[in-house]
Write a structure and sequence with these properties.
The structure holds 2 protein chains of 2 kinds. By secondary structure, chain A is mainly beta. Chain A has strands at about 5, 10-15, 20-25, 30-40, 40-50, 55, 65-70, 75-80, 85-95, 105, 110. In chain A, strand 9 (about 85-95) and strand 10 (about 105) form a beta hairpin. Classes of the chains: A mainly beta, B mainly beta. The interface of A and B includes residues 88 and 104 of A.
Chain lengths: ~110, ~120
């Protein structure tokens, strides 16, 4: 059974640009969550999607957005990149109705220069 | 809002010995889940163990076990017979059973295994 796949693994962008990150959940998982990991702030929740609807959103500015497609794949977008957006972005998927925790991908390392 | 605190930024242990990582949390909810995740250099967060708050029995997964003290809001992880492959960052996480479907993480503990 394939795990959670995140692409790309690494990304370097310039301030002011925008970026799109992709996450393919485990087959059958309809809930996809995104987290930002930085040395200073640790792991912070960005948002969660279920059946193409955003159910929960963390405390991030509107430059951070996401969406989920009918096949449960999810993308997150960051517009007008700032240096502080440099982070590891982790995606996690889970099967609704169970509480076996979340399965994470290996993340996308975004560097803003 | 719920918070999770890991007071040990770094821990080290000799191979084959036992180590305990501490975690405390703050919540007003009575129904929730607690998790320990491991993050090796590969970056992928790996679920180590989970505990339902309504269960009094402490969860165990092979060499990993927890000491869940609900009244004290404490959730420590014990690793027995430590192995070199256990070296990683360990994160304690909380998730509400009825509220927002999100994990609230502690700051992490970096565990080093000395051969």
């Amino acid at each position: 059974k394939a795990g959670v796949t995140q692409t790309p693994r690494y990304l370097i962008k310039t301030r002011g640009q925008q970026v799109t990150l992709s996450c393919s959940p485990i087959s059958g998982h309809r809930s996809v969550s995104w987290y930002q990991q930085t040395p200073g702030q640790g792991l912070q929740f960005l948002f969660e999607y279920f059946s193409e609807t955003q159910r929960n959103k963390g405390n991030f500015p509107g430059r951070f957005s996401g969406r989920q497609f009918s096949n449960s794949r999810s993308e997150m977008n960051v517009s007008t990149l700032e240096l502080g957006d440099s982070a590891l972005y982790l995606c996690a998927s889970s099967y609704e109705g169970t509480d076996y925790g979340y399965t994470f991908g290996s993340g996308t390392r975004l560097t803003v220069v | 809002a719920q918070t999770v605190t890991q007071s040990q930024p770094e821990m080290s242990v000799q191979e084959a010995e036992t180590v305990t990582l501490s975690c405390t949390y703050d919540t007003s909810e009575s129904d929730y889940y607690l998790f320990w995740y491991k993050q090796p250099p590969s970056r992928q967060m790996i679920l180590v163990i989970r505990q339902e708050a309504y269960k009094q029995q402490n969860a165990t997964e092979n060499r990993f076990s927890v000491n869940f003290q609900k009244a004290a809001k404490s959730f420590s992880l014990k690793i027995s017979d430590s192995q070199l492959g256990d070296a990683a960052m360990y994160f304690c996480a909380y998730r509400s059973a009825r509220g927002a479907q999100k994990l609230v993480f502690g700051q992490g503990t970096r565990l080093t295994i000395n051969p």
